[in-house]
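Example 9 (inverse folding). The structure is encoded as follows.
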């Protein structure tokens, strides 16, 4: 899936430590599948930094392997669970969730005003949800952990995703060859020195065939 991040400058590397807390889905790196929404935000944040703004395009590998690697939460639409989750995350004293990736609608300015009315007792939760039925479709994905960033690649990079080309067949092979469950196989691969070698773009180790990398992983794990 192609996704977009609007900012005052192009994003070359994602630094989660720079993320702002108490957003809809917590502290993390946010993108959207709607380019026009990213463009609108880029203009807003660009004016604050005296730039024209910039939209950086990424590829999000939304695969079954991502679901196994990460703890993912999906909100398909505005609903009561989404509202409770957003309210909790926007509360400075709220608890932190344990999701790696959260996807769902956006609490933009119009929705935020309604949330404030709901929290101040001016409208009921039922009335709030009824009004949101007619709200335009919005979308955002929050990448909350370093592990989650493995599923995201800059669109202009030529490197093929480690997840789709290398990670999936290696994990599946560990499962079939040694009887590991999927989570154990995933943990073994992503905590290995072999994977760290793959992550080093300068070495271009990722250009090797996945079967060669698998054999090196077996040699490292001594299995």
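The amino acid assigned to each position is listed next.
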């Amino acid at each position: 899936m192609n996704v977009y991040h609007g900012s005052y400058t192009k994003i070359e590397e994602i630094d989660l430590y720079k993320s702002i807390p108490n957003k809809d889905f917590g502290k993390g790196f946010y993108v959207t599948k709607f380019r026009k929404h990213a463009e609108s935000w880029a203009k807003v944040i660009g004016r604050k930094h005296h730039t024209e703004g910039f939209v950086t395009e990424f590829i999000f590998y939304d695969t079954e392997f991502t679901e196994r690697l990460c703890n993912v939460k999906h909100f398909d639409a505005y609903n009561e669970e989404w509202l409770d989750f957003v309210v909790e995350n926007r509360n400075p004293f709220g608890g932190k969730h344990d999701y790696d990736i959260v996807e769902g609608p956006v609490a933009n300015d119009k929705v935020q005003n309604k949330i404030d009315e709901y929290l101040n007792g001016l409208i009921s939760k039922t009335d709030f949800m009824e009004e949101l039925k007619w709200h335009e479709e919005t979308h955002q994905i929050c990448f909350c952990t370093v592990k989650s960033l493995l599923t995201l690649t800059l669109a202009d990079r030529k490197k093929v995703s480690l997840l789709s080309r290398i990670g999936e067949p290696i994990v599946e092979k560990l499962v079939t060859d040694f009887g590991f469950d999927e989570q154990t196989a995933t943990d073994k691969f992503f905590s290995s020195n072999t994977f760290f070698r793959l992550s080093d773009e300068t070495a271009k180790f990722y250009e090797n065939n996945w079967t060669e990398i698998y054999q090196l992983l077996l040699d490292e794990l001594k299995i």
